[in-house]
Amino acid sequence: MSQITALSAAKGGVGVSQLTANLGAALSKLERRTLLVDAHFGARTLDLFTGLSTRVFYHAGDVLNGRASLEDALLPVDGFSGLYLLPAGLRKEDAENLADGLLPLCERSFDQILIDLPLQPLTWQKSLLARCSDIVLVTTPEQASVRRTDSLRTVLEAEGVRPQMIVNMIRPRLIKKGLLPDAWEATETLPMQVLARIPSRRAVLIAGERGELLAGSASDYGLATMNAARRLLGEEVPYAV
Ligand SMILES: Nc1ncnc2c1ncn2[C@@H]1O[C@H](COP(=O)(O)OP(=O)(O)OP(=O)(O)O)[C@@H](O)[C@H]1O
Ligand SMILES: [Mg+2]
């Protein structure tokens, strides 16, 4: 059986999609056969972050509607053996069948499935969440993001789901100058297990635009996503940041 992990956020633009791609790349480096599922039907971006945007021909919507097989729609990610992308379909309605129509097929061939999931109060997402082993909420350390993440945590916990979190886009220089509170303080009020604390870096933005994955590289982001992948697999990894 696959370990299925959904990544999402209470606020837009906090880095969920790029993290999904890099966490998947890190898992493949740990020799886990890994599938990235873009669940943003009608607004996909994982193909951009994996450098595959010009190669999408079939997508999850085609598989759900019988126009293509899962194998037809899967795209291998260059440079990462065992890492594949299933691009999101174009019609939002098709996402409703993701949990029951597609995930069982995907589970046959992958150790890890990472889902880039838009979290809205939609009923189809309940069945999808029920299939997930882990939910990871990405937040930035700003108070507005922290507060919304905490509200979302409460909603998920009422559904019986205990999310973990990744704190992204921490600004170490502004913290050092005393202009921003320490990211640890800002987020330690959130009662969630932390998978990674990741600084904001120009190199991450540039890699994202180029469709390059940093997992496993010697950069902060590369190391943090690698450690997050190890923690997801249950390893005890000490925190450097
Ligand atoms: N640690 C980081 N440092 C610098 N830039 C980052 C970092 N993480 C993400 N970004 C940049 O932030 C932007 C938004 O990232 P991304 O699209 O992954 O966010 P998202 O949460 O998936 O957004 P959406 O809500 O639109 O789905 C991208 O340009 C990405 O390269
Ligand atoms: Mg996104």
Strand order of the largest sheet: 3-4-2-5-1-6-7-8
- State the fourth-level CATH superfamily: P-loop containing nucleotide triphosphate hydrolases
Low-confidence stretches: none
Average per-residue pLDDT, rounded, comes to 93
- What name is given to the CATH topology? Rossmann fold
Summing up helix and strand content along with how strands pair, one would put the structural category as alpha/beta
- Taken from the alpha-carbon principal axes, the silhouette is globular
How are helices and strands ordered from N to C?
EHEHHHEEHEHEHEHHEHH
The number of helical segments is 11
How many discrete structural domains?
A: 1
Q: What fraction of the residues are assigned to beta strands by DSSP?
A: 15-25%
Main sheet overview:
8 strands, mixed
Overall description:
The protein is an alpha/beta fold and 241 residues long. It has one domain (3-232): P-loop containing nucleotide triphosphate hydrolases (Rossmann fold, 3-Layer(aba) Sandwich). It has 11 helices and 8 strands. An 8-stranded mixed β-sheet has the order 3-4-2-5-1-6-7-8, sandwiched between helices. Helix 1 (16-29) crosses helix 11 (220-232) and helix 5 packs parallel to helix 6. Bound molecules: adenosine-5'-triphosphate (ATP) and magnesium ion. Adenosine-5'-triphosphate is lined by residues 9, 12-18, 45, 168-169, 198, 200-201, 204-205, 208, 221.
